[in-house]
């Protein structure tokens, strides 16, 4: 007979933190900033996948 592992209690993972990302992006050129702004705005235009 197969022994199954016990089910653990459910948990919710916290969402990503923008602060951690901003802290790592230093010394950007103006071109870098423009690309990041365009990429960051793109998901707002995508339809939601439900």
Topology:
Layout (H helix, E strand, L loop, with lengths): L17 H7 L5 H16 L5
Write up what this structure looks like:
The longest helix has 16 residues. With 50 residues, this protein is an all-alpha fold. The protein has 2 helices and no strands.
Strand % is under 5%
Give the termini separation.
39 Å
The count of β-strands is 0
Number of helices: 2
Helical proportion, percent range: 40-55%
Radius of gyration: 20 Å
Low-confidence stretches: none
Shape: elongated
Quaternary form: single chain
Mean pLDDT: 76
Assign the structural class, choosing from mainly alpha, mainly beta, alpha/beta, alpha+beta, or little secondary structure. Answer: mainly alpha
* Largest pleated sheet: none
SSE ordering: HH
Which key terms come to mind for this protein?
single chain; 50 residues; mainly alpha; elongated
Summarize the structure.
This protein is mainly α and 50 residues long. The protein has helices at 18-24, 30-45.
